[in-house]
Amino acid sequence: MATQPPTNGLTYAEAGVDIDAGNAMVEEIKPLVRATRRPGADAEIGGFGGLFDLKAAGFRDPILVAANDGVGTKVKIAIESGRHETIGIDLVAMCVNDLIVQGAEPLFFLDYFATGKLTPELGVAIVRGIAEGCRQAGAALIGGETAEMPGLYAEKDYDLAGFAVGAAERDALLPRLDQIRPGDVLLGLASSGVHSNGYSLVRKIVTLSGLPWDAPAPFAAERSLGDALLEPTRIYVKSLLAALRGPAGGGIKALAHITGGGFIDNIPRVLPKGLGVDLDLGAIRPPRVFGWLARTGGVAVTEMLRTFNCGIGMVIVVDPAEAGRVTASLQEAGEQVSVVGTLIDATGEPLVRPRGTLAL
C-alpha cells in the first residue's frame, strides 16, 4: 500500500526557523561588512566561504596564527538590559588581542551567532558591533554564520563565537623566549573596565546588590549599571603593531593578554621556565568598577587578581634599555602605560609574586 503524503502542510517557519528573516539580515549587514575591507580581502559576504590574499596583504614569509573565543556570560547582561550594540566589539577583541600577543597582525574575522528566534534588528545591531571591532583591529569581516535554533535557545537568548586569523613574519613571532631574562620590565596597558572575563561572578554580585540593570551604576552614576558593565573590551592591536614595528620594537620580548586567570595565570604563559614576576600592585590603578565588585561581593584581593584584569588588559615584557621608547610609542598611540613589575628568578610556586596594595 502506497504511503500517503502528509496533509498538515507544515513549514520550516512554523517549526520556528524563518529563512526570510535570515536573508533580510544578510542584506542589511552587507554595507557593514564592506566597511571592513582591507588589503587582501574585499569583505563581501554571500558565498560559501571567505577569501584572503596574503600576497596582497604584503607578507613575504608569513606564519598564520589563529584564535577563537566567545564573550561568555557578558551576553546575558546584553540580553537582559536590551543593549546589543557593543557586544560584538567584545567578541572581536577577545580574539584579536590573542593574535597580537603572538606578534601577529589580524587579517580577517568570522563570527557565529546562534539564537532561539532571529529578528533582523537584533542581528544587525550585533554585527554592527562586530564590524566596529574589526575596524578597530584592522581586520576584514569576511564571513560568518547565523543559526536560528528554537528549542535549544530560549526565544530572546543568543550566543556568540568568533574566529580570527592573523599573520606574522617568521622572524617576528612572539614570545622571544631565548631573549627573556631577569630584570626585564613589565609594562601594563590600562583596560577599559572588566573586559569580557569573570562575568559569572559579576552577575552574582549584581544579584547580591539587588540593583536592576537600569539603575545608576554605583561606580559611575552618569551611566546605568547595565551600560557601565557592558563597556567594550579594549582592542590593543593598532597601538601594539605600531610599537612592534617602530624603532624600539626589538625590545619587546613578549605580550600577555590579561583574560581569565588574571595576572596569576596569564603572565607565566609567555615566560621561560625558571622565571617569575615581581608584581607591583601599587603601580596599578583599577577603575572604580573593581572596587565596587570587591566590596559588594566580599571578594578577596587574591581572587580579584586571578579572576579580573583589575585595570591592566595587556602586559608587555620589555628590555629595560628600551622601556622608555616603547612607553612613548604606546602613549602616542593613546594607551595609558605603567610599569607594573619586573622579571625575577623563580624556581618554585607562586610564579607571580604580588607586593604592595591594590587600590580597590
What does this structure look like?
- The structure is a single chain.
- With 360 residues, the protein is of the alpha+beta class.
- It is built from 11 helices and 12 strands.
- It has a 6-stranded mixed sheet. The protein has a 4-stranded mixed sheet with strand order 1-4-2-3, covered by helices on one side.
- α1 runs parallel beside α4 and α3 packs parallel to α4.
- It is globular.
- The termini are far apart.
- The mean pLDDT is 92.
Distance between the termini: 78 Å
Question: Overall pLDDT, averaged?
Answer: 92
Strand content: 15-25%
Instruction: Please give the largest β-sheet.
Output: 6 strands, mixed
- Number of E-state strands: 12
Given the C-alpha coordinates, what overall shape results?
globular
Level of helix content? 25-40%
Tally of helical runs: 11
Radius of gyration: 22 Å
Sequence of strands across the biggest β-sheet = 8-10-5-11-9-12
SSE series? HEHHEHEEEHEEHHEHEHHEHEE
What structural category do the secondary elements indicate? alpha+beta
Low-confidence spans: pLDDT under 50, at least 5 residues?
A: none
